[in-house]
Amino acid sequence: MPDGGPPLYAVSDLHGHHTRVRAALTEAGLTDGDGRWTGGEAVLWVLGDLMDRGPDGVGVLDLVRALERQAADHGGAVHALLGNHDVLALAVHRFGPAPVASAAGRPNSFTLAWLVNGGHAEDQARLTVEHVDWLSGLPVLGRERGWLLAHSDTTSYLDYGRTVEEVNDAVAEVVAGDDLEQWWELFRRLTSRHDYLGPDGPRAAAHLLGTLGAERLVHGHSILATLTGTPSEEVTGPLRYADGLVLAIDGGMYDGGPCLLTRLDRLPRP
Description:
The protein is of the alpha/beta class. It has helices at 18-27, 57-73, 84-95, 110-116, 121-126, 129-136, 164-176, 180-191, 201-212, 224-228; strands at residues 8-11, 43-46, 77-80, 99-101, 107-109, 141-144, 147-150, 216-219, 239-241, 246-248, 262-263. A five-stranded mixed beta sheet has the order 6-7-8-10-9. It has a four-stranded mixed beta sheet with strand order 3-2-1-11. It has a two-stranded antiparallel sheet with strand order 4-5. Strand 1 (8-11), helix 1 (18-27) and strand 2 (43-46) form a beta-alpha-beta unit. The longest helix is centred in the N-terminal third of the chain and has 17 residues, at 57-73.
């Protein structure tokens, strides 16, 4: 195995595209035609944004939750991270249209933000206590074999701590609480993006990685069309940038792009 461990995969921004995600997992040999885990000891990270925009967000939740259990039974692992759309879905469930001041000072609400960002009423109606509890327990960062795994291409994670554990614990405290302003600030920070582009991008990435104890970063959130200028339907693979320190894997399924289920352990180190 290229890095001395079992196969290591990442995928991001599933956005309710249940059928397409299942097809990608089956093609990679991680599941069978019925969507059951066949990946053995492989490790899969799902980098957030399971819901919104696509047709079956709850179906995606159920798929990932089931694979999490099945992979563990076979010596593998499936881990999921909390993305900004997952925070948004939870906040709509908890706070609904309660008014909150936006960064621009104008009244806003999670319900309004959710509708603007492709929220589906069917997903909210189908959320159970089990779904909410599972989503609420997800971390925002992971670290494995030198990789830092995150949803967003932002350095704002460092606003919550200086280690992966500190960041996850601080976010978990927000999600466990009922402070509307703290929830809104969490959503705002996870929605920020593009911190690793441009001439200062490598320095920003190196600072994040050095602080959190990793060698390279893989993220979703910003579709490759916005990072490269290539239309989503012409995207063929992930993007490595910021002097090789950062890997972007959101192909933009909701925008007509591919599901970029990416094998990380085969990629050369920067």
